[in-house]
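Write out the 3D structure for:
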Amino acid sequence: MSDVSSVPLPADPHVLRYLEHVRVEKRLAARTLTLYTLDLEKLAQLAAGVQLPLLQLTSAHIRRFVAQMHSAGRSGRGIALILSGWRGFFTWAGRQGLIGHNPVQDVRAPKAPKPLPKALGVDDAVRLAEFDHAGADPWLEARDAAMVELLYGCGLRVGELVGLDAVPGPDTQRQGRGWIDLQAGEAHVFGKGSKRRSVPVGAAAVAALQAWLALRAAPFGGDGSARLDAALFVGQRGARLTAQSVWLRLRQRSQQAGLTTPVHPHMLRHSFASHLLQSSGDLRAVQELLGHANITTTQVYTRLDFQHLAKVYDAAHPRARRK
């Protein structure tokens, strides 16, 4: 690892004083001091490009430098770290009475693009949904299979899933819980902001729920057992399943199904949205099914859809093939 002695020092005497200040008074580690030195050497090079000494740079110059670094491929996070180093130098210069205003004070790095939500491919999602763990406890197998069907088949959030009651009672809606109407094939859930929505439950999910409900109360002595919670999905002690338990069970199940990617509940929600949009192209419908208040939240899935189309093009179109 390089140290400050191997890095060419900037020629500006103010920078040298500042580096000595942070070395002695702040007692920075050698690696941190090296990074400060590199950042200020970069600033000195940029200032030379506009033929100005460092202490005459303005916020407009700093913004121009940020734009140059960004267009050259520097990440928003990397630029933010550089700006932090520059900001420290100009703060010190202000305390020394060398400048009247810190030109970096109100300059921010470009925002990093939001990462795309992770979604399974259609084949992997179907593989997980159809997975049958031979030899597993039938009670756990039926419960976990039903949870996967609802997460992928209805696009539920994990909080909405664990908030479902087996049968709606007088406290269900009042306490912000949801329920499944198997006869109508609908899930009634309470999402973010206590917003209620109804989503269709497909035939595969209905069948999985019926199989689970037939076994749900068996270990607890029947429906009247005081140990059995009103929740649709319960643990082995009869209490409502927690979101963390669903995460753990789903991760384990995806590994058992042979998926290379550990699956979490929100990944199935993303898969639901992405696959539905690929097939229908109806962004508004997907927004309603997901319970998004703003269409811009749903639009991220159009980027996933474009990725899918781009892969199809690259694989199939004659003009996309490179020699």
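Confidence is low (pLDDT under 50) at residues 1-7.
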